[in-house]
Amino acid sequence: MSANWSGTVIFRDEQRVAPSSIDEMQELISKSVRVRARGSAHCFNDIADTSATAITFENMPSDIEINKDNQTVRVPAGMKYGELAVALNDRGWAIHNMASLPHISVAGAVATATHGSGVGNGNLATAVKSLELVLPDGSLKRVSEGDVDFLGYVVGLGLTGVVVNLDLAIEPTFNISQTVYRGMSRESYAANLDEIMSLAYSVSYFTTWAAAGGGEVWAKFKSGTTAPTELFEAYPATSNRHPLPGLNPEPCTEQMAVGGPWHLRLPHFKMEFTPSAGDEIQSEFFVARKDAPAAIAALEKIAPQINEILWVTEIRAIAADQLWMSPHYQRDSIGIHFTWKKVDAVYEMVKVVEATLAPFNYRPHLGKVFSASPENFASVMPKLNDFKKLIREIDPDNKFGNDFTNNLLGL
Ligand SMILES: Cc1cc2nc3c(=O)[nH]c(=O)nc-3n(C[C@H](O)[C@H](O)[C@H](O)COP(=O)(O)OP(=O)(O)OC[C@H]3O[C@@H](n4cnc5c(N)ncnc54)[C@H](O)[C@@H]3O)c2cc1C
């Protein structure tokens, strides 16, 4: 793995090491001057890069342990959500949500506050009840909900220690059915945003920012709820859809209101296929849910510029949480996501989008492309100083840092 998933970040690793036990991991970390954990390398910025030692998890044990009394599962850090989900569902359990793809590692997704959708659903990191980490001196530490600074450790950007396993909240397995509504204009979506995003357990709105033609609402209903036969001017699709206009829907999870287990409906993409376009760059910005209609109206002014280099935009809802470095910290959020074409113009366009969203105090997705200065980032992340203090205590020699985190946090 010398590059990230989309090939847009070439890793500069001096060496890559894949320990096969926690003991080996501890020894490696204690003897290293600088190390960086790497998950499945699906981030679109340099957050997972290092110029020293990259630690990967493919040789670590992959068993899960369910605790029925606490309703938690202990998960090895490098496990993919897709693998975890099958193992959980086979035993009658579920986690509360999934990202659009099941291919990502649990620890990597948690470290960047990866999310799915749903007005009542926190991001994936909100399921964490406890973490076991290797600290810079090689010692092991378990941090659990209720412990001092737990809320700072979870969305750790790879800086709070190398996570070896996580306890996640689980619930009895549930079924979801997915209906795609076509012909939803942005105007109508923005005007009825709260109602549409609250329609189902998880809802996404897709648009290309084209002047004409409607977008699509992808609604994932928990069993027991019935999909309406129309949604404002939008109507249920009569065949399966891909979120990117014109692409074959085969890689997508089952639609057309066919019920099935949560893990085969909540992600948009199936585990056995390449998700999304592949040939792409992603960025995403979060605003308060109440500000989302105005933020969409502001983006309308640059819609033609966006459309020129865009595959598709996805708009999702994420419930507020208490995790210090979560972009959804104490703010019910709407994520405005851009799947861009893989062209250099994206990096300048991202700055235009950021300038447009600045009046709404947008917070960036930590694993996607953004250009915020440390000052700008600090101004929208209320717990940043507490997080920096925590990292200085955990890792005074900055063993786990890289250029990306040093720049972003001003370390
Ligand atoms: C096609 C596609 C679709 C996507 N869809 C979504 C989506 O629906 N929602 C969303 O929010 N995001 C989405 N993303 C972004 C993605 O989920 C995040 O970038 C996520 O962080 C990827 O996890 P990873 O395991 O690949 O992390 P990596 O890129 O490998 O690493 C990310 C960070 O986690 C840290 N890390 C990894 N493992 C550990 C560990 N064991 N201990 C400590 N730190 C660790 C790394 O140091 C790094 O800082 C998508 C990405 C792609 C490519």
List the helices and strands and how they pair.
Elements: E1 15-17, H1 22-31, E2 35-37, E3 53-55, E4 65-67, E5 72-76, H2 81-90, E6 93-94, H3 106-111, E7 128-134, E8 140-144, H4 150-153, E9 162-169, E10 171-172, E11 175-184, H5 186-191, H6 193-197, E12 202-207, E13 215-222, E14 235-236, E15 260-261, E16 280-288, H7 292-300, H8 303-308, E17 310-318, E18 333-341, H9 345-357, E19 363-364, H10 374-380, H11 384-394, H12 403-409
Parallel strand pairs: 1-3, 2-3
Antiparallel strand pairs: 4-5, 5-9, 6-10, 7-8, 7-9, 11-13, 11-14, 11-15, 12-13, 12-17, 16-18, 16-19, 17-18
This protein binds flavin-adenine dinucleotide (FAD).
Flavin-adenine dinucleotide (FAD) binds at residues 5, 36-43, 47-48, 77, 99-101, 104-105, 107-109, 111-112, 114-115, 157-158, 162-163, 275-276, 282, 365, 367.
